[in-house]
Amino acid sequence: KIDIYTFLVKYEPNLHSGSFLLPLASPESSTKGNFIKVEDNNPGYKLDNFCIPKHYEEDLKRVLVPAGLVADRVERVALDIVQDFQEEPIVALCVLKGGYKFFTDLLDRIKQLNSHRNKSVPLAVDFIRLKSYVDDKSSGQIEVIGGDSLENLKGKNVLVVEDIIDTGNTMMKLLSLLKAVEPKTIKVASLLVKRTPKSVGYRPDYTGFEIPDIFIVGYALDYNEYFRDLNHICEINEAGKVKYATKS
Ligand code: HPA
Ligand code: MG
User: Which pTM value belongs to this model?
Assistant: First the structure.
């Protein structure tokens, strides 16, 4: 004997996310609002609870998101992506340089799922390099400073893989550049979204963590190219900002 609730939980595992109530909703609706929220009052972790490169010990305030938690969350984002795409081929577009760790870890997980499920998502990769930050301030302009011609993305399912959505300006500009080459679909996965009053309101299709309005480094996120060689997502301190400020 199986009651309706058991039936739904068994055959509609996304019931709790509301997708059962919205059978006609587009696939992203069940994942767009699904992220780990790091609250403003979250103290994070003491630096000496973790292994931190010796050369950065004096330059950080705290660990905000440990690398192990990033790995666990990335695993789930990968699952959400393959469930949405089913068997549609994707071109994963890595936004360099900050996106490279999330990109490789996310693609490793998708590849793993591709050989452990009865459906698989063919993957191609592409890269684009953008620059908008000097010190801890957005320059207000984005520049495309590398990558293949975007023309190659015409007619493709493009999955943009980004490290962080801060104001959202960079992503809005990138999306308008991409739309101009007419991909079949465009989805965006961002490891982090910052809660900032400067936000233009943009929300990616897949989000790892929503974080407070502080400048963070590590897991490929930089401050003037430093701290990419730090595994954990950490808050930089004032000494670090001064030590690695642009000298110009
Ligand atoms: N850290 C590093 N890079 C960034 C950030 C940040 O907090 N926001 C936008 N780019
Ligand atoms: Mg950067």
Answer: 0.85
Which of the listed residues 134, 213, 216 should we mutate to test ligand 1's pocket, taking the one with most ligand atoms within 8 A of CB?
Answer: 216
Q: Which active-site residues does the annotation give?
A: 166
Q: Decide whether any atom of ligand 1 lies within 6 Å of the 166 Cβ.
A: yes
Residue pair 160/187 in contact by the 8 Å Cβ criterion:
yes
Angle of CA points 210, 130, 40, to nearest 5°: 15
Tell me the pairing of strands 185-194 and 157-165: parallel
Ligand 1 pocket: which of 96, 101, 133 to mutate (most atoms within 8 A of CB): 133
pLDDT tens digits, 182-222? 999 999 999 999 999 999 999 999 999 999 999 999 999 99
Strands 123-134 and 216-217: unpaired
User: What's the gap in Å between 215 CA and the centre of ligand 1?
Assistant: 6
Q: Pick from 188, 140, 186, 189: which is nearest to 167 by CA?
A: 140
Instruction: Count CB neighbours of 159 within 10 A.
Output: 26
Q: How many angstroms separate the CA atoms of 209 and 38, rounded?
A: 7
Distances (CA, A) of 54 to 15, 135, 217: 47, 22, 15
Q: Closest residue (by CA) to atom 1 of ligand 1?
A: 216
Burial of 124 (0-12, 13-18, 19+ CB in 10 A): middle
**Distance between Cα 218 and ligand 1 center (Å):** 10
